[in-house]
Specification:
Layout lengths: L10 H12 L9 E2 L13 E2 L13 E7 L11 E3 L2 E5 L5 E5 L5 E5 L1 H4 L14 E5 L2 E8 L2 E5 L15 E3 L20 E3 L2 E4 L14 E5 L5 E5 L17 H4 L1 E2 L7 E3 L4 E5 L3 E2 L16 E6 L5 E6 L15 E7 L2 E9 L5 E5 L9 E5 L13 E5 L20 H13 L15 E3 L13 E3 L4 E7 L3 E3 L1 E3 L3 E2 H9 L1 H4 L22 H10 L16 H11 L11 E2 L6 E3 L19 E7 L4 E7 L4 H4 L15 E3 L3 E4 L7 E6 L5 E6 L9 E5 L2 E8 L13 E6 L3
Parallel strand pairs: 2-37
Antiparallel strand pairs: 1-41, 3-43, 4-5, 5-6, 6-7, 8-9, 9-10, 10-11, 12-13, 13-14, 14-15, 16-19, 17-18, 18-20, 20-21, 22-23, 23-24, 25-26, 27-30, 28-29, 29-35, 31-34, 32-33, 35-36, 37-38, 38-39, 39-40, 41-42, 42-43
Helix pairs in contact: 5-8
Length: 710
């Protein structure tokens, strides 16, 4: 892979990198250096001090072991390694413990066998949490809306925790637990004897509030709650309509958190409030949606906050836990926190008080002309660090893959509503969003080298389109579909296969009973919908009939809904693709960047990912959609999978971005790797699931570990 521009690395910095890369550790039998926290540490740096694998020998890496779950569904899990044991999930959300040196299965925990009376959704889980105090230890595992406490040695439930070994995050919220639709996709952080948790909620109302909660890790008792939609008397209450806390939802932490253990501060990035695309019922800035909130980890008290998007109508969630860093400005070391965004921004803030390290501009944006919508007047734009994605698309920056694709993209671009970042949506005309709702930055997040103060981040570089349509009088089934399903499956029910299936002929694939289970529990990336009536209820019957009847509703299900309120529904947000299914923007479509946080300047940027069929046509540097993040080591190597289309696991020289090694995986690896040492031998392991790859729509689940030959 070639660099997009020449590296701008100073001589001093280059020497520091080169010296670090040449260090080779001597094997020491019995020595173990593990990876006991999601992403390596609660600072979320994804950095390892290991040096045995380095730029001189990484090309010799060999596969040492492989674990195949023989399940479908895909993986997004970054494993933990504690001592000699690796902990992870399978696609069915079974928790597994493997010998980290051999891949041998030690035990398996299946929540469905532990609680066979209920069905829960099988959504991708990104990691686990491990707690130890003296001789006590617990592995905390999230499955759907439950958190389980397991004995790490045996995989057995610990019944002293919660209710028979688990807690239900649907409890202690605004509405009855049975009506709550939420799941947990990212692990909680452990602070002292607390596990601090967020969750994933629906993006349309009704949705539960995105409360951040801390539980006693021994008993499961709720210890504190922070309301991201403030209650009366709480800070930020006046940034919402006065009763919003009673009905609005989301503003939740789905991507995970970071923790400054010494300061006792947990840093919580949140997503947008429901409904994502239309905010007439939440006029105001909507604190603490789209906000990085610093909380006292002991009490949940707000210490400071920074709102990255005011009154979000673009689904601009903060997509990844922030990274806790140290930067050197004017000769002084400053503890900081860096928060990537879907727009391709890096918000670099003082870790203690939230003040920007570099200047922050509050730029005026266009107003919305959609009835009832009131967009914020200004949005924050950091002067530095430099954005890690393109910020503007023009006719000159559309695809040149073929002359025909370019001509199509130009014609389509002229049809779109687009004025750059923060273009408000309009009714009955597609608006271009660039980067799209999948980033820019995504949940894999960056890696940070504390020795050089360089941040490494991968990004998606393609757009999406979205339109609003006014909901007039309609049947109950279609009204439910528009509010709960259309954002993903589109108003016309065509979806965007293979990632988001079409529902046009769903009756050919599911009967009433199968559809009932699917809607109640969810599957893959789709959440369940317990907010609907039980399967015999009228809401479920109306939605099921609408889906199964092929858009023909008989009189019994055609009750006209018109509550007199303004409703604007999303027609969905499909990717901005050419007729052959490739991004309609110019290459590269996925990138990997190195940014010096001391100066805010970009050092290098390369395409990340390939389309095998385009490589065969002489186009190797296209870049591709990518999820999961990098790991950087003191040995001078950056490891990353992430790329959706090519099933590759790669190692780059962290100082230049030069490709040093790659290996083919059984599936694409939409996950972040981990590296560790056992008996003086360094390993790097990654989960491969392939669920976003059109070539493997069913997905799978394997973990593959590499090391140097002995």
């Amino acid at each position: 892979m070639r660099a997009l521009r020449s590296p701008l690395v100073s001589t001093t910095l280059y020497l520091k990198l080169a010296l670090a890369a040449c260090v080779v550790s001597s094997p020491a039998w019995g020595q173990t250096i593990d990876w006991p926290v999601y992403n390596g540490s609660y600072k979320n740096t994804k950095y390892s001090k290991l040096t045995q694998i380095n730029t001189k020998n990484v090309s010799q890496l060999k596969e040492i072991w492989r674990y195949d779950s023989h399940e479908t569904g895909g993986l997004e899990t970054a494993p933990l390694i504690v001592g000699r044991t690796l902990f992870a999930y399978t696609p069915r959300q079974e928790v597994i413990a493997l010998d980290a040196a051999t891949g041998r299965v030690l035990w398996t925990f299946d929540s469905q066998k532990a609680f066979p009376a209920e069905r829960v959704a099988s959504r991708a889980e990104r990691g686990l949490s491990y707690w130890r105090s003296g001789k006590e230890k617990r592995l905390m595992a999230n499955v759907s809306h439950y958190v389980y406490a397991l004995d790490p040695d045996t995989g057995k439930l610990l019944p002293s925790f919660g209710n028979q070994g688990r807690i239900d995050l649907r409890e202690n919220l605004r509405d009855p637990a049975r009506t709550m639709s939420l799941s947990i996709t990212s692990p909680g952080v452990i602070y002292k004897d607390l596990i601090i948790l967020g969750d994933a909620t629906p993006e349309a109302l009704p949705a539960p509030p995105g409360d951040v909660r801390a539980y006693d890790v021994r008993t499961g008792a709720l210890r504190w709650t922070f309301h991201t939609i403030p209650h009366p008397g709480e800070y930020g209450y006046d940034s919402w309509p006065k009763d919003a806390w009673t009905y609005s939802g989301a503003a939740n932490n789905w991507c995970g958190m970071s923790l400054d253990v010494d300061r006792g501060i947990v840093y919580v990035p949140t997503g947008s409030a429901a409904t994502d695309w239309y905010g007439a019922d939440r006029v105001g800035d909507d604190l603490f949606a789209n906000t990085l909130v610093a909380l006292d980890a002991n009490t949940g008290k707000r210490l400071w906050h920074f709102q990255g998007v005011r009154h979000d109508i673009w689904d601009r969630d903060f997509p990844t836990p922030p990274t806790l860093v140290t930067v050197r400005i004017n000769g002084k070391d400053i503890p900081a926190v860096v928060q990537p965004s879907k727009q391709g921004f890096l918000f670099l803030l003082n870790r203690a008080d939230g003040k920007p390290i570099f200047p922050m501009e509050y730029r005026r944006i266009p107003a919305s002309d959609v009835p009832g919508e009131v967009t914020a007047e200004e949005q924050p734009i950091p002067a530095k660090p430099a954005p890690f994605t393109r910020q503007l698309i023009t006719e000159d920056t559309l695809t040149t893959r073929t002359p025909e694709a370019h001509a199509w993209a130009q014609a389509r671009f002229r049809e779109l509503h687009y004025t750059g970042q923060f273009t408000p949506l309009v009714v009955d005309k597609d608006t271009l969003m660039y980067p799209g709702t999948d980033g820019g930055g995504e949940w894999g997040g960056p890696a940070f080298d504390p020795q050089t103060h360089i941040l490494y981040i991968n990004a998606n570089e393609f757009g999406m389109t979205e339109s609003l349509q006014k909901r007039g009088p309609t049947s109950t089934g279609r009204a439910i579909y528009l509010s709960q399903c259309s954002a993903c499956h589109q108003a016309n029910r065509q979806g965007q296969p293979p990632e988001i299936p079409s529902l046009v002929d769903i009756g050919k694939r599911y009967n009433q009973a199968q559809l009932s289970e699917l809607l109640q529990t969810g599957r893959g990336r789709m959440p369940g919908f317990p907010i609907l009536d039980p399967p015999a209820g009228s809401q479920f019957q109306s939605l099921a009939h609408y889906l199964l009847s092929g858009n023909v509703e008989d009189e019994a299900h055609a009750k006209v809904v018109d509550d007199g309120k303004l409703h604007y529904d999303s027609t969905g947000y499909p990717k901005f693709l050419d007729p052959q299914g490739y991004p309609a923007s110019a290459m590269p479509w996925g990138t990997l960047s190195a940014i010096n946080l001391d100066t805010g300047e970009s050092l290098w940027k390369i395409p990340l990912g390939q389309y095998p069929e385009l490589v065969a046509k002489g186009m190797p540097d296209t870049g591709s959609e990518n999820y999961g993040g990098p790991v950087v080591t003191a040995g001078g190597v950056l490891f990353i999978g992430a790329t959706v289309r090519d099933k590759k696991f790669r190692a780059f020289d962290k100082s230049t971005g030069r490709l040093l090694w790659e290996s083919s995986l059984p599936f694409s690896a939409c996950a972040t790797p981990a590296t560790y040492e056992i008996d003086g031998r360094q390993y790097v392991v990654i989960g491969a699931g392939g669920q976003r790859d059109p070539a493997t729509p069913a997905g799978g689940g394997s973990y593959v570990a590499y090391a140097l030959p002995q």
